Amino acid sequence: MPTISRFFGIAIEMFWREHNPPHFHATYAEDEAVFEIASLDIIRGHLPHRARALVTEWAELHREALLENWELCSQLKPPNPVPPLE
Q1: Residue 43 lies in a domain
Q2: How far apart, in whole angstroms, are the C-alpha atoms of residue 56 and residue 85?
Q3: Does the global pTM surpass 0.90?
């Protein structure tokens, strides 16, 4: 499970051979949520409100890179790192 970014205790990961819709996993402490890239809605799991807001802000800034990484993963290629939220 390649980690593509880390910020404020949050790890963002993408997996190879994942199902549609394009998405990424965000983990914070014991909580994990799966975010759809197009809508940035949580499609599975849960994050605390503040962590969810940070992930959403980060993903809005890097949506194009997330979609490019989704395409790489679907081709079984390693995703590129994405800058953290600062």
Answers
A1: yes
A2: 10
A3: yes
25, 32 contact by CB (below 8 A): yes
- Cα separation of 48 and 83, whole Å? 22
15 touches 45 (CB < 8 A):
no
Is residue 14 in a domain?
Answer: yes
Task: Name the residue range of residue 27's domain.
Answer: 3-74
User: How far is Cα 75 from Cα 86, in angstroms, rounded to an integer?
Assistant: 30
Instruction: Write the CA distances from 52 to 3, 16, 47, 68, 86, integer angstroms.
Output: 17, 23, 6, 22, 15
Residue range 25-70, pLDDT digits in tens:
999 999 999 999 999 999 999 999 999 999 999 999 999 999 999 9
